[in-house]
Amino acid sequence: MTQRVLxxxxxxxxxxxxxxxxxxxxxxxxxxxxxxVLSLFFTVxxxxxxxxxxxxxxxxxxxxxxxxxxxLHQIRNVTGDVxxxxxxxxxxxxxxxxxxAPAAGQGGGTQSARGARxxxxxxxxxxxxxxxxxxxxxxxxx
Length: 142
What we know:
By secondary structure, this protein is of the alpha/beta class. It is built from 2 helices and 7 strands. The protein has helices at residues 3-26, 28-55, and strands at residues 67-68, 72-78, 82-85, 94-95, 117-118, 122-128, 132-134. It has a 3-stranded mixed beta sheet, with no helix packed on it. A two-stranded parallel sheet has the order 1-5. It has a two-stranded parallel ribbon with strand order 2-6. A hairpin with an 8-residue loop joins strand 3 (82-85) and strand 4 (94-95). Mean pLDDT is 74; it is low at 88-107.
C-alpha cells in the first residue's frame, strides 16, 4: 500500500469518526436534521462526480503491453465501412475507412489490450457507423 493511499485511508476514517462524534453530541433530533442536510450535499457531490466521469472520459486507444505474432487492430469512430485485410507480421494492418467525428450514440470510452500477447489477430472496434468485414488470410495456390 502506498503512502498516499494510507494517508487517504487514515484521513477518511478520522473524518467519519469525527462526524459520528459530532452527531452523537448533538442529540437525536439535531443529528437527524444534520444528517438530512449532509445527505443532500453528498448526493449532489456524487451526481457531479458521476457527470464529470461520464463527460470527461478520454477517447484514447492503447495496446498497452502488446506483443504481436500476427496483427492487432484498434478502430474507433469511423462513419464508413471497415475492411481489415490480412497482412504480414511486419506490415501495418490495412483498414479502408475514413475516420471522422463520432456520430451520435457511437464510440466513447477507451479501448485497451492490457498485457496482450497475440499469436493471431486481436480486433477492438468501437463506434463504426457502417459494416465491418474481416477478410480471412488467403492461402497461396501451388
